[in-house]
Amino acid sequence: MEDIWIEKYRPKILEDVVGQDEIVERFKAYVKTKNVPHLLFAGPAGTGKTTCALALTKELYGSTWRQNFNELNASDERGIGIIRGKIKDFARTAPIGKADFKIIFLDEADSLTNDAQSALRRTIEKYSHICRFILSVNYSSKIIEPIQSRCTVFRFHPIKSADIKKYMQKIAKIEKLEITSDGLETLIFISQGDMRKAINVLQVGASVKKKITAELLYETTSTAKPEDVKNLINTALGGNFMAARNQLYDLLIKYGLSGEDIIKQIHKGIFDLTIPEESKIRLIEKTGETEFRLIEGSNAHIQIEALLAHFVHEGGKLQ
After folding, report:
1. Helices marked H in the chain
2. For residue 179, is it left (φ>0), alpha (ψ between -120 and 50) or beta?
3. Which is nearest to 38 in space by CA: 110, 118, 101?
């Protein structure tokens, strides 16, 4: 269900791409000259990497873009087989129409094994005369150096709050939704610069009510309110362990959060505390250690209770 609005409101041309103005300007130059180098898109999820690849392709090829564009997700097939099979078969065929080259868009390319990347490097070399590659990754450091050196790297940054607000208001107007001011701020808080997540959250909220409020969004996305997490932290720092423990279980039951969700919000809340920097450093260190233990499979309730106990101990030093 969530992907419906993503495709519906995905920008079709470069002019409509939101929040990546400098990158879009360089892509327009590529369209004007009808020439594109191999590209490497690096950045967080939901910042427009796939959208830019599609918009660039559509403006380059017009009505024949589907015949000259192949999108693959490397996380589905991570091994050398995808390079020797699907990618090589598409790369070595001639472009359709008046196009000088075709484009292969490889999403989540940082999921490829090193052997697969080595094979991809050779494929890029061999078919550069009729094919261009666009690699999309979250972390460019996971791509081997020989591929990086063959690509022009574009680094996508999280979408600014003002751009997310503007786009959410645009969607709300089309969908005949009413978004309150606190609802908009909540969308920004939950999405953290991820436009795709913001659209999905708005869609989920709209499926329940036409009036989008902060309360509705917190309920439908199973996200704890920042003030609730702040109260939890302050209670623990105040030395009342049992009260903090009860607040923790209220959050887990009310919002249905996982241990990792709670840890992430506690981590954000620490930076807003009015305590000495040394105390923040110790709390952050302990929070990171707890998160690592959760990822490794430890019991979430026990680990977070232990973290709260550390907050109580740290709070005692501040008295």
Report:
1. 3-8, 21-33, 49-61, 80-82, 88-91, 114-126, 145-148, 161-175, 181-191, 195-206, 214-221, 226-237, 241-255, 259-270, 277-295, 300-318
2. beta
3. 101
CA neighbor of 71 nearest in space, from 59, 60, 82: 82
Its CATH architecture, for the domain 161-221, is Orthogonal Bundle (1.10)
Q: What angle do CA 285, 111, 291 make, to 5 degrees?
A: 20
Q: Which residues contact 126 (CB under 8 A, 6 or more apart)?
A: 91
Domain residue extents for the chain: 3-155, 161-221, 226-318
User: Edge-to-edge strands of the sheet including 39-42?
Assistant: 69-73, 102-107, 131-137, 39-42, 152-155
- pLDDT at residue 264 above 50? yes
Class for the domain spanning 3-155: alpha beta
SS3 category, 256: coil
What pLDDT is attached to residue 111? 85
- Burial annotation 214-246 (CB, 10 A radius, 16+ → b, else e): bebbbebbebbbeebbbbbbbbbbbeebeebbe
Helix 259-270 crosses helix 300-318 at what angle (to 10 degrees)? 20
pLDDT per position as a tens digit, 175-231: 999 999 999 999 999 998 999 999 999 999 999 999 999 989 988 887 888 888 999
Number of other residues whose CB lies within 10 A of the CB of residue 304: 23
Please give the DSSP secondary-structure letter assigned to residue 180.
-
Quote the pTM value. Answer: 0.82
CB 45 within 8 Å of CB 194: yes
Instruction: Report which of 201, 194, 195, 255 is spatially closest to residue 226, judged by C-alpha positions.
Output: 255
DSSP string, 276-313: -HHHHHHHHHHHHHHHHHHHTT--HHHHHHHHHHHHHH
Fold entry, domain 226-318: Zinc Finger, Delta Prime; domain 3 (1.20.272)
pLDDT over 90 (residue 3): no
Whose structure tokens read 């795709």? 196
Decide if 216 contacts 208 (C-beta within 8 A).
Answer: yes
